[in-house]
Write a structure and sequence with these properties.
By secondary structure, this protein is an alpha/beta fold. The protein has 3 domains: 105 residues, 3-Layer(bba) Sandwich (Glucose Oxidase, domain 1), CATH 3.50.30; 107 residues, Orthogonal Bundle (Enzyme I, Chain A, domain 2), CATH 1.10.274.10; 300 residues, Phosphoenolpyruvate-binding domains (TIM Barrel). It contains 22 helices and 16 strands. The strands form 2 sheets. The protein has an 8-stranded mixed sheet with strand order 1-8-7-3-4-5-6-2. Strand 9, helix 10 and strand 10 form a beta-alpha-beta unit.
Length: 569
């Protein structure tokens, strides 16, 4: 009998194959009293060492297959294995309570997981997931049970799991793992992000696939609409084989536009560029017809390690990206750490509300050694391509002026010492704080460009944490208030002869694109895989008609009305 299960579409595509249940090992733990605490600690150290060896191998595989930003997840896992705050209490429990290693580890790790999961902060919840993933691996070695290894799958299957940990996902062989579906998870979970970069169809958050699907069941994963169909009838199977063929044909059509300009039906040109995190991501930009890089998130250079990157390391990374883009524009965002992105080795103060705290440009203007090192590396790399620099989280004109003054100081020092620096580096800013959007007419006199960071602009304007499920309804990209702020920024830029881009999620959103064309946005920055679908969409739109649409949207009262308006065309 055919069964339909609904979940969250996490990675596009249709996968059809038989089910493979990725079972967690039996990690049932009994408390035992041990006689020799020293020997028990040695046993713990051996399990930790074995886990480190495995994670190093997974990290190297992830780096080769998925790029440095995905490999950084496993750097974080390796840091957990070395964390004295986790391991010392485990050893204390073994020594002081004569507890067996697996019981002591499970008790301490469970306490940390509960603590982090109760925090209303997505970064902390991800840390809880990291600790859970790493602890399971160590416990499996202590208990002598086999840990699930997805890399051993040797036939075409759909993976069925309660959840896929980052290490599970990184080990999937794309040749055999045609898709996956899980009980828990969302579009922003590690496994969903990695599935999209691997282009494996995925449906997550179904609540019941492990309960309802057995090994060998025939399964369809519809990553376009979030459906999972178990043991489909011949008729349903034919329907989905057609849907899969249509999607593949659509991808082939998109690919034909790889080297085409992005022009509306009535001849208006805009730029479609990509958001990247590491030099490894450039290949995806080029393969997907990106006209440049609209956001290079440099913080990945700083994450997943235990010290700051040197000027030389940064120079090499920036030079690689600029050379690889062969003269196409590369907009580099200076260090944006804080909020949900922490660097443990900086020992920054704990804050009640880190999203509104000591982060991004605020940190860089205070910790100028870090900032100047990055700026020197960027300036030295500038001669290898078309570099544009932007400062994040600018709230006041004085912040922008101070950041630019430091950049000019470092440029003058380099030039005076005989180092060649490009003379045509545009210097711009992110608009992600309402104050800078409202004052855009004044900023526009001094910046070379704006890039609207909608993820933060929306949450700050609506006073709603986008990671908080209780107030998720307030994260409204189409709210007329947001559209009016975006229009203020674009109009201010154009009045001064400058350009305005967007590098938040909204820039690649098919529902937002018609509105943004109508508002006059010049540059759309998005994930590389969104570029060709967006180009296809834009070529069918009329700029003149979208201007009328945007004007109507700006006069509306609610986000729902705006959505209905866009859908009506």
């Amino acid at each position: 009998m055919t069964l339909h299960i609904q979940g969250i579409a996490a990675s596009s595509g249709i996968a059809i194959a038989k089910a493979f249940r990725l079972e967690n090992p039996d990690l049932t733990i009994e408390k035992k009293t041990i006689a020799d605490a020293g020997a028990e600690i040695v046993r713990l150290e051996a399990a930790l060492a074995q886990s480190k060896t495995e994670l190093e191998a997974i990290k190297n595989h992830a780096f080769a297959e998925l790029g440095a930003d995905k490999a950084a997840i496993f750097e974080a896992h390796l840091l957990v294995l070395n964390d004295p705050e986790l391991l010392n209490p485990v050893k204390d429990k073994i020594q002081n309570e004569s507890a067996n290693a697996e019981f002591a580890l499970n008790e301490v790790a469970s306490m940390f997981v509960s603590m982090f999961e109760s925090m209303d902060n997505e970064y902390m919840k991800e840390r809880a997931a990291d600790i859970r993933d790493v602890t399971k691996r160590v416990l499996a070695h202590l208990l002598g049970v086999r840990f699930a290894n997805p890399s051993t799958i040797s036939e075409e299957v759909i993976i069925i799991a309660e959840d896929l940990t980052p290490s599970d996902t990184a080990q999937l062989n794309r040749k055999y793992a045609k898709g996956f579906t899980t009980d828990i998870g969302g579009r922003t979970s590690h496994s969903a992000i990695m599935a999209r970069s691997m282009e494996i169809p995925a449906v997550v958050g179904t609540k019941e696939v492990t309960e309802k699907i057995q090994n060998g069941d025939f399964v369809i994963v519809d990553g376009l609409d979030g459906n999972v169909i178990v043991n489909p009838s011949e008729e349903i199977l034919r329907e989905y084989e057609d849907k899969k063929a249509q999607f593949e044909a659509q991808k082939t059509e998109w690919a034909k536009l790889k080297n085409e300009a992005t022009v509306t039906e009535d001849g208006h040109h805009v730029e479609l560029v990509a958001n990247i995190g590491t030099p490894n991501d450039v290949k995806g930009v080029i393969d997907n017809g990106g006209e440049g890089v609209g956001l290079y998130r440099t913080e990945f250079l700083y994450m997943g390690r235990d010290n700051l990157p040197t000027e030389e390391e940064q120079f090499e990374a920036y030079k690689t990206v600029l050379e690889s883009m062969e003269g196409k524009p590369v907009v580099v965002r200076t260090l944006d750490i804080g909020g949900d992105k922490e660097l443990p080795y900086l020992h920054l103060p704990k804050e009640m509300n880190p999203f509104l705290g000591y982060r991004a440009i605020r940190l860089c203007l205070d910790e100028q050694d870090i900032f100047r090192t990055q700026l020197r590396a960027l300036l030295r790399a500038s001669v290898y391509g078309n570099l544009k620099i932007m400062f994040p989280m600018i709230a006041t004109l004085n912040e922008f002026r101070e950041a630019k003054a430091i950049l000019i100081e470092e440029k003058d020092k380099l030039t005076a010492s005989g180092v060649q620096v490009s003379d045509n580096i545009e210097v711009g800013m992110m608009v992600e704080i309402p104050s800078s959007a409202v004052l855009a007419d004044q900023f526009a006199k001094e910046v070379d460009f704006f890039s609207v960071g909608t993820n933060d602009l929306i949450q700050y304007t609506m006073a709603a944490d986008r990671m908080n499920e209780q107030v998720a309804y307030l994260y409204q990209p189409y709210n007329p208030a947001i559209l009016r702020l975006v229009k203020m920024v674009i109009d201010a830029a154009h009045k001064e002869g400058k350009w305005a881009g967007m590098c938040g999620e909204m820039g690649g959103d098919p529902l937002a694109i018609p509105l943004l064309i109508g508002l006059g946005l010049d540059e759309f920055s998005m994930s590389a895989t969104s570029i060709l679908p967006a180009r296809t969409q834009i070529r069918k739109l009329s700029k003149a008609q979208m201007e009328e649409l945007a004007q109507k949207a700006l006069s509306m009262s609610t986000a729902e009305e705006v959505v209905e308006l866009v859908k009506s065309i």
